[in-house]
Amino acid sequence: MAGLEVLFSCVSSAIARPQDVVVCFVHWEAVQNGYKCLGTGDEPRDGDKKSELLPAGWNTSGELYTLRYRSNDDKSTLLFKAITVDSTLIFNVMDSATEQISDLTVNVSDYIDAQHLHDFERVFKNTEDLANKVKSKLLPQVKGESSKKAKKSERDPLADTQRDDPLRIPTRTPSSSRQPNWSDPLAPFAAGGADLDPFGGRAGGMIVDPLRAGFPRPGFDPSHGVLPPGAVPPGARFDPFGPVGRRRPGPDPDHMPPPGYDDMFM
């Protein structure tokens, strides 16, 4: 863990008990997650400066540790306390901005070898497990780490918004590349099949579909009432809007004229 060894070397001469080592480790996790220490005690003091180091007198009591931290962006301040209870340390952290409180109980012997308090290579045990607990239970609101993760993920916020927007119109694809997923029953009795068996998944219905009812398909011409593939959603029924066939019938000279067609008052 980069930087922890340097910190440990700075405070090694002041370490007197295994609890001191745990507090040193938790302090470094706070630093790694976007905070710096302001000093000891519950109240701010004149001349407080943010530092990655532990302040003088940080472990004087041996039973109660009280430290104050501020985030790198100055938007959050933490009041950090650790109380020794038998062989455990009970951590309590309050964010003064949100008044949110988090806590963590650590069994010291699970993570510290009391026989090697001043040997950095041997004093720590299960550091990955302890680091995960500190980040998830004591420092869930840290903003520095979350911003780093956001930069690494490089997710497109616009894509997320479009995916979650229920009013977004889906992207249309050219009809030439879009093939309707229809069956193609050419039997003349296919029309009405779905009405006879609505739950059978059959095609066809009361309204005759010129593409599916057995009529010849001369070509796709909207003027003839025939639409190109993909123009009608799968399973949809519609009334033809023009006569089926290649030619539209026109007036016939042999047709009988209407009665009174030569009446000027008609």
UniProtKB/TrEMBL annotation:
<dbReference type="GO" id="GO:0043161">
    <property type="term" value="P:proteasome-mediated ubiquitin-dependent protein catabolic process"/>
</dbReference>
<dbReference type="GO" id="GO:0000502">
    <property type="term" value="C:proteasome complex"/>
</dbReference>
<feature type="domain" description="PI31 proteasome regulator C-terminal">
    <location>
        <begin position="175"/>
        <end position="243"/>
    </location>
</feature>
<keyword id="KW-0963">Cytoplasm</keyword>
<dbReference type="GO" id="GO:0004866">
    <property type="term" value="F:endopeptidase inhibitor activity"/>
</dbReference>
<dbReference type="Pfam" id="PF08577">
    <property type="entry name" value="PI31_Prot_C"/>
</dbReference>
<feature type="region of interest" description="Disordered">
    <location>
        <begin position="219"/>
        <end position="266"/>
    </location>
</feature>
<feature type="region of interest" description="Disordered">
    <location>
        <begin position="140"/>
        <end position="189"/>
    </location>
</feature>
<feature type="compositionally biased region" description="Polar residues">
    <location>
        <begin position="172"/>
        <end position="182"/>
    </location>
</feature>
<keyword id="KW-0488">Methylation</keyword>
<dbReference type="InterPro" id="IPR021625">
    <property type="entry name" value="PI31_Prot_N"/>
</dbReference>
<dbReference type="InterPro" id="IPR045128">
    <property type="entry name" value="PI31-like"/>
</dbReference>
<comment type="function">
    <text>Plays an important role in control of proteasome function. Inhibits the hydrolysis of protein and peptide substrates by the 20S proteasome. Also inhibits the activation of the proteasome by the proteasome regulatory proteins PA700 and PA28.</text>
</comment>
<keyword id="KW-0647">Proteasome</keyword>
<dbReference type="GO" id="GO:0005783">
    <property type="term" value="C:endoplasmic reticulum"/>
</dbReference>
<dbReference type="GO" id="GO:0070628">
    <property type="term" value="F:proteasome binding"/>
</dbReference>
<protein>
    <recommendedName>
        <fullName>Proteasome inhibitor PI31 subunit</fullName>
    </recommendedName>
</protein>
<keyword id="KW-0597">Phosphoprotein</keyword>
<keyword id="KW-0256">Endoplasmic reticulum</keyword>
<feature type="domain" description="PI31 proteasome regulator N-terminal">
    <location>
        <begin position="12"/>
        <end position="147"/>
    </location>
</feature>
<keyword id="KW-0007">Acetylation</keyword>
<feature type="compositionally biased region" description="Basic and acidic residues">
    <location>
        <begin position="145"/>
        <end position="167"/>
    </location>
</feature>
<feature type="compositionally biased region" description="Low complexity">
    <location>
        <begin position="225"/>
        <end position="244"/>
    </location>
</feature>
<dbReference type="InterPro" id="IPR013886">
    <property type="entry name" value="PI31_Prot_C"/>
</dbReference>
<comment type="similarity">
    <text>Belongs to the proteasome inhibitor PI31 family.</text>
</comment>
<dbReference type="Pfam" id="PF11566">
    <property type="entry name" value="PI31_Prot_N"/>
</dbReference>
